[in-house]
Amino acid sequence: MDEVEVVVAHSERATLRVGDVFLKVDSDQARLDVEVAAMALVPVPTPEVLWRKPPVLAIAAVAGTALGRLGEPSTASPAAWAAAGAAVRTLHDAPLPPWPRRGKDLDELAADLDHECERLVTDGVLPADLVTRNRQVAEAALRPWTPRFTHGDLQITHIFVDGDEVTGIIDWSEAGPGDALFDLATLTLGHEERVGDLIAGYGTDVDLDMIRAWWSLRSLLNVRWLADHGFDPFAPGCEVDVLRSRM
Predict the structure, then answer these.
(1) Residue 100 and residue 78 in contact, taking contact as beta carbons nearer than 8 Å
(2) Which residue in 20, 72, 76, 111 has its CB near the most CB atoms, within 10 A?
(3) Segment-wise mean pLDDT, segments of 10 residues, the chain, 247 residues
(4) Model pLDDT, residue 153
(5) How far lies 206's CA from each of 59, 111, 158, 181, 192, in Å?
(6) pLDDT value at position 27?
(7) What is the pLDDT of residue 1?
(8) What are the residues whose beta carbons fall under 8 Å from the beta carbon of 177, sequence distance 6 or more?
(9) Where does the Aminoglycoside phosphotransferase domain lie (predicted)?
(10) CA 167 to centroid of chain Cα atoms
């Protein structure tokens, strides 16, 4: 009998692996609706949907291995990173999905940034100079952008490769119209040295300052949430190190 592996689990959702099947349990059915719809639309490799019985979605494992992990050097080749960039560009060039943008608007993000920066300092989580510097960097991301079909949570562990080929992109529950540079920043968070390889495959001019702004913004907003949900943003190469790299 296959063992049950807990891939990720917190108060909002959990993902379990049993053999070659992933079981996603989510209390928010809208997220699962988006995930299934997005995988049916996107012009990039995705997992096969095996069955769905709310609140559970079963999907097949994809071949290959993740492009890397946050906090660890990526062992994937430059060509694999370029292939990932090409796949993301294909996604961003696809027609927009029929559902509205998920997540918060610019005013809400700005308010969240104000709140989190204040809490990080007053609670003694991070030094004031570190927060202030990264807030200055992060504010550049709070600008209008042209909506693209985005993944919305394109962490490095969500792209799988076999050699130099992308075999699958997983976890589409946040997909929708969004900022293409947010996807690129999420994918390269903690792997600044691989940005050039990714952009080589993406194949267009990219505003690196905007990517750095999203690194700071995402990290500032996530440090307390990660700590509260059993993750360690202070681990080497993770969010706090990303913030320190801007000093």
Answers:
(1) no
(2) 76
(3) 79 87 91 95 97 94 94 96 98 96 88 97 97 97 95 95 96 95 97 97 93 98 92 95 95
(4) 94
(5) 33, 27, 21, 8, 14
(6) 87
(7) 55
(8) 96, 97, 100, 101, 147, 148, 149, 150
(9) 37-204
(10) 17
How far is it, in rounded angstroms, from Cα 83 to Cα 159? 10
Q: Which residues pair with 14 in a beta bridge?
A: 9, 25
Rounded distance between C-alpha atoms, residue 157 and residue 76, angstroms: 12
Place of tokens 């691989």: 194
Which residues lie closer than 8 Å to 165 by C-beta, 6 or more apart? 64, 80, 83
Residues in the chain: 247
Residue 129 to residue 222: CA distance in whole angstroms: 18
3-state SS track over 159-170: EEEECCEEEEEC
Query: What digits encode the pLDDT tens for the residues 48-70?
Result: 999 999 999 999 999 999 999 99
Alpha carbon 54 to chain centroid, angstroms: 24
Q: What tokens does 62 get? A: 């994809």
Token representation of residue 202: 């993406």
Residue 137, token pair as written in the block: 């960097």
Q: Which domains does the chain possess? A: 64-244 (3.90.1200.10)
Strands across the sheet containing 21-26: 4-9, 13-18, 21-26, 56-60, 49-53
Instruction: For 12-75, give the DSSP string.
Output: SEEEEEETTEEEEEES-HHHHHHHHHHHHH-SS--PPEEEEETTEEEEEPPSSEES--TTS---
Distance between CA atoms of residues 67 and 191, nearest Å: 11
